[in-house]
Predict the structure of Na+/glucose cotransporter.
Amino acid sequence: MKAIYNLLQPVDFVVVAIYLAILIGIGLWVSFGQRKNKDQNLFLADKSLGWASIGFTMWGTNVGPSMLVASASAGYLSGIVSGNFAWYAFVFILMLAVVFAPRYLGANVSTLPEFLGKRFGENTRNILAWYTLITILISWLSLGLFAGGVLIRQLLGLDMWLSVIVMVVVSTLFVIAGGLKTIAYTSVFQMLLLIAVSLLLVVLGVSKAGGLHAIYEKTPAHFWNLFQPNSDTSYPWLPILLGYPVMGVWFFCTEQSMVQSVLGAKSLKQGQLGANFIGWLKILDVPLFILPGIICYVLYPNINPDEAYLTMVTNLFPAGLKGLIIVVLVACLISTIGASLNSVSTVFTMDIYVKKYNAQATNREIIRVGRIITVAGAIISVAVALAIDMIKGLDLFNVFQSVLGFLAPPMTVAFLFGVLWKKTTPRAINCVLTIGTAFCLLIGILYLWVYPSKTYTVWPHFMLLSFYLFLVLSAMTILISVFDKKGALQLQQATYFKSLAKPDKQVWVMWGVLVAVMLGLYIFFNGH
């Protein structure tokens, strides 16, 4: 695949320059022009975010360059079935809105470790704080940087170190200057740009293919089914139905980087409407990111599926517009990296520095430490990303990515039982977060390398295995809680259990419409 850089015209560079100027201008305006209180809470945007900023920020955190490429590749290989990971998510985003958000905001917390700390004590908070820091640094930052760096290297021919460092520097400056508010405002601009450019790619592709009906006629019928038979090795319906919820609750309800913008909502209603808005935005994942792969299957058969996205871009975008794809990739990277750096800074500062080392810290001191941690997190993530790139003969990217998939069951169990079952004891949750995590990682190592599933077919599907691990850890939580008499006596019951604000009527109406639309989509995209 020829680097797009070799196909760029002067007007493309003008487009990129205009984008960077607007982005930096928005960042400076939010960071300095809008600041009224020097002691405001940068981590949570001074609790000022509205529903649109929340939705765009969450979506921007979710959408990365590797997702664009992977989604098109999945569309090329199997049609819209991978859209389940976007459309099925409405269930877990609804849980965030009506189950978790009232408790998070009612507890007035800055981080999710702080939330579980109020429920189960300081040991739980400490365990979860370090747990969260490590997973964000590896999964969101280092792996995201590496994947984005590889893509930019393919597109522009730049060295890995240069592309990674440039993205981190821009993101770090935004986080240091304005915190979550800057990320939220720039995310709105960047995600609108992503929608526009992706829609343009789809329109050009559909036009060249002869229309949507022509695309439908030239693809296998199963390409348009969200549920595939259980005999399908990649996306059988039962593992998706049972297993994806384990990862969905973890990702959308308990992951600090995803949830932080909801914690910064100006009110519970705005937080719940913001969650609803990302539910609508997730609908766009299929037509904007997966459909290009299906179009590519029609237009350019017999290519490497991993090159579907870049093939569409290089062949369909006319001279003068190819610079837009660079803009989109930069936008995705900055949104994801910025949100992740802000989360690392928030968790370390509030759950470790303030709680353990300087409980009397002023807001100025907290902000200063947060900025230092932001820079430190950026340096660490760059180092790990470059190390992954340098080590030959071992695919560390897939190693880390695969192992992280086995971290979902412990987190899902800890938060679901912590929120939904009042008799859950601190000892039970601490065991889940330590022993349970070790057990899941052990199963993951056995599944991936010692007795690899490709060789030993006795293993269930990956997502079904995740569901089984969830059941095991749930049983462990129940047993320990029932027999932990001392823990039951000492159990802390935080205020968020006693007084939960009920969702506003507008919230229920918006969610009712979204649920109806999603059910309609699932009915329409099956039986082909």
In short: The chain has a mean pLDDT of 83.
